[in-house]
Amino acid sequence: MSNVYITESKIICADNFVLAATTYSPKKALKGAVLIGPATGIKRQFYANFATFIAEAGYGVITFDNRGIGGSLLSEIKNSDTSLQCWGEKDMPAVLEQLKTAFPRTKYHLIGHSAGGQLVGLMHNAQELSSIFNVACSSGQLKNMAPLHSIKAHFFMNFFIPLNNALFGYTKTQWVGMGEPLPKAVAQQWREWCNSEGYVKAAFGKTIHHHLYDDLTTPSMWVNATDDDIAINANVDDMLSVFTKLSAQRLTLSPNDYALDEIGHMKFFSRKSQVLWSHASNWLADH
């Protein structure tokens, strides 16, 4: 019998957009509550096993689909005007508010996967987080990648995305095994930021006029893997440089150390990688 109550819910953002979400409530005494920020184009179901593990450890958890993705795609994707910036400024803050409502009077944490960690500085309420645990979170800067992967990344970012947006009005990311189809502005902003230093920093003073990247002092852990071609150490450094005051620790995992075939950019959250999950639960227990 499960030690977790799992419920499906809707979260209403400040602009009245409705997000699909799943809440995991522990049956034991509550230790804290966790917002799981998803990677670009990844649906909340991907994190279900991990979320259940965290909830079984005594933490309330909410997973969600960013607008334009999965259960939060409310019309034809070519009609979606959402952007990466919108995910950080509107979606993630609304989910944190729902987390506070569902699990009041406790500590709140972010477990961010890739974009789910990158965008935290856009959350107007990010300073309410007691800690941040980021996985495979980096700037994704193309020029820092190893030559072979850099060629593939340049093709995807600078040819595949513009061509798809021109032909279809959105990017068919699923064709190349990179999650759900992406709304046009999400893919375009992703392309622009990965071609720049500091990722989101490329939009400062242009489309981003208010942020907390210079204000957050939150304890944080940044986890990457030796077989991740995207969140390499140089790109983690690049992303961290945007957070000018953040208290950051680093952990680089090798699949060989855990008898795993792969960790890469995505597999930390795989059921096959449960041996890694104690890194997250121990971090939460300490913060």
Mean pLDDT: 96
CATH architecture verdict: 3-Layer(aba) Sandwich
CATH superfamily: Alpha/Beta hydrolase fold, catalytic domain
The tally of helices reads 7
Q: Main β-sheet, in a few words?
A: 8 strands, mixed
Could you list the spans in which at least 5 consecutive residues all have pLDDT below 50?
none
The tally of beta strands, per DSSP, is 10
Helix content: 25-40%
Strand order, largest beta sheet:
1-2-4-3-5-6-9-10
The H/E string reads EEEHEHEHEHEEHEHEH
The amount of beta strand, in percent, is: 15-25%
The first-to-last residue Cα distance is: 29 Å
CATH topology: Rossmann fold
Computed CA radius of gyration, to the nearest angstrom: 18 Å
What's the CATH first level? Alpha Beta
Shape: globular
In short:
With 287 residues, the chain is of the alpha/beta class. It contains seven helices and ten strands. It has an eight-stranded mixed sheet with strand order 1-2-4-3-5-6-9-10, sandwiched between helices.
Reconstruct the topology from this structure:
Blueprint: E1 4-12, E2 18-26, E3 32-37, H1 48-56, E4 59-64, H2 84-102, E5 108-113, H3 115-118, E6 131-135, H4 147-168, E7 170-171, E8 182-183, H5 184-194, E9 219-225, H6 233-240, E10 247-253, H7 278-286
Parallel strand pairs: 3-4, 3-5, 5-6, 6-9, 9-10
Antiparallel strand pairs: 1-2, 2-4, 7-8
